[in-house]
Amino acid sequence: MEILAGLHEKVIHFPIAFLAVYPIIELIALVSKKEFFSKAAFLFLFIGVIGALAAVLTGNQAFTINDDWSKQSLKIFDQHEIYANITIWLFTALLILRYYFSVKRKLTNLIHLLILLAGLTGLYFIYQSGSYGGELVKSKYRNSLIEKTTSD
Q: 107: domain range?
């Protein structure tokens, strides 16, 4: 499973990009009332959620194969995991709601606006998850440098 673990840093950028652009397209769909933008927003959300699931899978594998976690790294990882889980649950819920209201043809302006606001809120969780992920990489890098210099 080391192959999956090594993919995390490559896979993660795709859901970040799709989920970050999603609220912008959702806003355009809400303002323009054009079906094209509504479908594009749904597609971006769908691809982003699928990509986020792949990122969680690869991230969990990366965590399990590393056994040299410092206390500081584990604290950072816990925060990263919390924000990543909130992110994926929020956007998955939005995907389900968006699909349900679209199929039932009940995607009113109010519901559309609430979905948009939740998507914008999701940007905060994406940012926090990425911020802690970056800190985790820096922390692991620092630890490996310390180990290397002390062993030389």
A: 2-151
C-alpha pair distances (Å), 112 with each of 20, 26, 49, 88: 17, 8, 19, 20
Is the CB of residue 65 less than 8 Å from the CB of residue 140? no
Rounded (10°) angle between helices 13-32 and 2-11: 40
pLDDT digits (tens, 9 = 90+) for 119-150: 999 999 999 999 999 898 887 666 554 555 55
Question: Can you read off the two tokens belonging to residue 20?
Answer: 């970050």
Burial (Cβ within 10 Å: 0-12, 13-18, ≥19) of residue 120? middle
Quick one: pLDDT at residue 145? 46
Question: What's the predicted TM-score (pTM) here?
Answer: 0.86
C-alpha to C-alpha distance for 117 and 121, rounded to whole angstroms: 6
Q: For the chain, list residues with pLDDT below 50.
A: 145
d(CA 51, CA 37): 21
**Number of folded domains in the chain?**
1
